[in-house]
Amino acid sequence: MGIIYNFLSFLFVFIFNFQDVSSAPTRQLCHPEQRDALLEFKNEFEIGEPSYGCYSGVKPKTESWVNHSECCYWDGVKCDAKSGEVIELDLTCSRLHGRFHSNSKIFMVQSLRSLDLSVNDLRGQIPFLIGNLSHLTDLKLYNNYLDGENPSSFGSLKKLATLDV
């Protein structure tokens, strides 16, 4: 009787634990449209010499950005563990050189909560479409060569807690 009880107890615990593991949520992968938008954003700029204040031996974070790869594992990219949406983009000191386009593909990644493009060589005005990133809590664009007025669309960023331009 004791052997049967022990066996049934073991079987019950095994089945219960197996159901727990099999019903655990799996990590979502990067959304293809967000991966494509990030790759297009990368291609909007040239990779140049490091900006003043950046260590010259550091490789650009966008070097790890390769088509058909998991963007949640790219340098500078952080995704939500459940949804797989890109929520943070940190491209500080990434040697990005060029004009910040008014129709930049970065504005398609509307799940972004944190965007750090500081200490690069971005030029031009801060695009009006930045107001489309309504989930932003942190925006850092300092140590670039951005000119002009801050766009009125900053007023659309209701969750913005940190703004460093």
Automatic annotation (TrEMBL):
It is a single-pass type I membrane protein. It is found in: Membrane. The lineage of its organism: Eukaryota, Viridiplantae, Streptophyta, Embryophyta, Tracheophyta. Pfam families: LRR_1, LRRNT_2. InterPro entries: Leu-rich_rpt, LRR_dom_sf, LRR_N_plant-typ, RLP23-like. Its main location: membrane. This is Receptor-like protein 12. It comes from Noccaea caerulescens. GO terms for cellular component: membrane. Keywords: Glycoprotein, Leucine-rich repeat, Membrane, Receptor, Repeat, Signal, Transmembrane, Transmembrane helix. Residues 1-23 form the signal peptide. Residues 31-80 form the Leucine-rich repeat-containing N-terminal plant-type domain. It comes from the Eukaryota.
